[in-house]
Design brief:
Strand order of the largest sheet: 1-2
Helix content: under 10%
Largest sheet: 2 strands, antiparallel
Strand content: 5-15%
Mean pLDDT: 82
Radius of gyration: 12 Å
Number of strands: 2
Number of helices: 0
Distance between the termini: 20 Å
Order of helices and strands: EE
Structural class: mainly beta
């Protein structure tokens, strides 16, 4: 599940930890991608 984040992240600070469900039902944690490049693509259809 998504974690509620209060405040913000300043430039140069590490991103807060989070986990998201994958398409196959597992969970993926940001910490598992440490040292890799990560592209986040968010969109909404409301």
């Amino acid at each position: 599940m998504a974690t509620e984040v209060t405040g913000g992240v300043r430039l140069g600070e590490p991103a807060p930890g989070w986990t998201l469900p994958t398409l196959d039902g597992r969970e993926l944690a940001l910490d598992a991608l440490h040292g890799r490049k990560v592209l986040l693509f968010f969109w909404g259809s409301w």
